[in-house]
Design brief:
Layout lengths: L9 E6 L1 H11 L3 H6 L5 H18 L9 E6 L1 E12 L2 E10 L5 E12 L1 H18 L4 E6 L2 H7 L11 H12 L3 E6 L6 H12 L3
Parallel strand pairs: 3-6, 6-7
Antiparallel strand pairs: 1-2, 3-4, 4-5
Helix pairs in contact: 1-3, 4-6
């Protein structure tokens, strides 16, 4: 499945006010707000921002005080994905970080999965990243993950025998086939720290 990648052009894309709020919720530590409101947890504050963003999307309104931003909409992205399970199975989370060819982080994603296995969480981290890459309009994708099992399954070297993983594998293959170029890379855990951080934050903060 791995294919050679060609160079991609990066073009600007306008970002709406709802995306600004979602960016703040995912990227900022929000520490000053948390200190000002001691009874407010970070996960609750993220949900407040998400609800505000959803309201903006639904009502078509804008926040006049917020400037519109320009962010890169790369045709090629690197997707770093990971999954964490505290116990196997145990409380688990999925994480992904999307990076443009320039090295700029495009997005950080996390999702709390409840009680699942580590391999399930690994696939969910990949799906988070691939779905986001597709939504951004990327046409080429490089996948970096520290799960050798998942990378070898997607590359056709290992069969998928787990009934719980098969639907996730099938969706991953469908998503990968939507891109014009795909590269699958197994990396050491220390090279996947940002995605690992997101998967663990997903557990800690119930993202």
């Amino acid at each position: 499945m791995p294919r050679a990648l060609r160079l991609a052009k990066v073009t600007p894309k306008a970002t709406g006010d709802a995306e600004v709020l979602r960016f703040i919720a995912r990227q900022e530590d929000l520490q000053a707000t948390l200190e000002a409101f001691p009874g407010l947890g970070r996960a609750q504050l993220q949900r407040l921002l998400e609800r505000a963003a959803t309201s903006l999307d639904s009502n078509g309104k804008t926040l006049g005080a917020l400037p519109r931003l320009s962010t890169p909409a790369p045709e090629r992205v690197r997707v770093y994905s990971d999954g964490a399970a505290r116990g196997n199975p145990g409380l688990s989370g999925a994480g992904a970080v999307l990076v443009a060819p320039s090295g700029q982080v495009v997005d950080r994603l996390g999702k709390f999965l409840g009680t699942q296995t580590n391999n399930y969480a690994e696939y969910m981290g990949l799906l988070l990243g691939l779905r986001r890459a597709k939504a951004l309009g990327a046409r080429e994708v490089e996948v970096y993950a520290d799960s050798e099992l998942m990378i070898r399954q997607l590359g056709g070297r290992y069969q998928v025998k787990s009934l719980s993983l098969k639907p996730l594998y099938d969706e991953a293959v469908r998503l990968l086939n939507d891109f014009s170029r795909v590269k699958l890379v197994h990396v050491p855990r220390e090279m996947n720290k940002q995605a690992d951080e997101m998967s663990n934050r997903a557990i800690d903060e119930r993202l």
